[in-house]
Every structure is written in C-alpha cells, then in structure tokens.
C-alpha cells in the first residue's frame, strides 16, 4: 500500500468551510505550530500576561497518537477550544479562546512561542476556516474573519474611531 504522506497526489483536495463559534465577550486566536510542547508553552505565555486573563487552548497533533491536546484556566474556554480544534481537524493547528483580555494584549507573546509558525486570525468576529482535505490529512488554507467592508470611513468615522480607542484605554 502506498503511504499518502510520502507520495505526491494529483487528486484535487476536497475543500470545506468550518464555522468557528465565537461567543459574546470572547475572542479567538487560530494558528499553526509544530511540536507537542505547543500547549504548555502557549499556556505559559498567556498566564504571564495578566492575572485576570481567562483562556482555553487546544492543539491538534499531526503525528503519533494525533490527539487534541488542551490546557487553560477556564473550563468553558478550554471546551470551546477543543470543539474548534476538532471541527477544524488539521494537524498542528491550535485554537485559543480568551476572556478578560484581548488578542492585542497577548498576540506578540503567542507569536514569540518558538513552536508557533503562523497566526491565521485573532478576532471576536464570526470566523470561517477554509480547510483542504487530501489523502494525507487536513490543512488550513485561510480564514474568513467577519464581513466585507461596506464603505470607507468619513471624517466623523475617524473621530469616532479615535475616541473609541481613548474610551477603552488604548490611547491617551
């Protein structure tokens, strides 16, 4: 029998759209990494950012027992991350769900984890993951993060954007 992992295929991959649940008040970070150490290192990077940050992490192994590895400090967010990882089902991908903090507060720490190869998105918007499936397995081609633009900001929109950043404490 031919090993699909070592044999080139001319078969067109099957594409699917996987919706990822993002509940009200939560954010999700989706990415790709390598190595079983990912879950532990992501956990350490997140727990050190804020004592208030609540999070759940799930990581899809791509070899060996190919388990969904999980960690976090909030059972509901861990379960959301596991469900997202299972639905996506692509090797070496991870899902991080956050509450009491935002991706902007942790994204550099996540990207600095040595195992992290790529971050697909960091958002509170509805997300769809575009997945390709081959004989070897599944891979993420990209994501659809929220909706398409409806226009270009006006001067009033610029003022509102700047004020919002000050109102939520991100600008002086």
Structure write-up:
27% of the residues lie in helices and 33% in strands. With 172 residues, the protein is of the alpha+beta class. The protein has a single domain, classed as Ta1353-like (hypothetical protein tt1634). The mean pLDDT is 94.
How does the SSE layout of this entry go?
Blueprint: E1 14-20, E2 27-33, H1 38-47, E3 54-60, E4 68-72, H2 75-88, E5 93-99, H3 103-112, E6 116-123, E7 127-133, E8 138-145, H4 155-167
Antiparallel strand pairs: 1-7, 2-5, 2-6, 3-4, 3-5, 7-8
Protein name: Membrane protein
Pfam families: Adenosine_kin
Number of strands: 8
CATH topology name, in short, is hypothetical protein tt1634
Number of helices: 4
- The helix content, as a percent range, equals 25-40%
For the record, give the distance between the C-alpha atoms at the N and C termini, rounded to a whole number: 64 Å
Give the CA-based shape: globular
Largest sheet at a glance?
5 strands, antiparallel
N-to-C series of helices and strands: EEHEEHEHEEEH
CATH homologous superfamily assignment: Ta1353-like
Number of domains: 1
Strand order of the largest sheet: 4-3-5-2-6
Class based on secondary structure composition and strand pairing: alpha+beta
Percent strand: 25-35%
Q: From the alpha-carbon coordinates, what is the Rg to the nearest angstrom?
A: 18 Å
Q: Runs with pLDDT <50, length 5+?
A: none
Q: In terms of quaternary structure, what is this?
A: single chain
What's the overall average pLDDT, rounded?
Answer: 94
CATH class category name: Alpha Beta
CATH architecture: 3-Layer(aba) Sandwich
InterPro entries: Adenosine_kinase, Ta1353-like_sf
Pfam family, one: Adenosine_kin
Protein name: Membrane protein
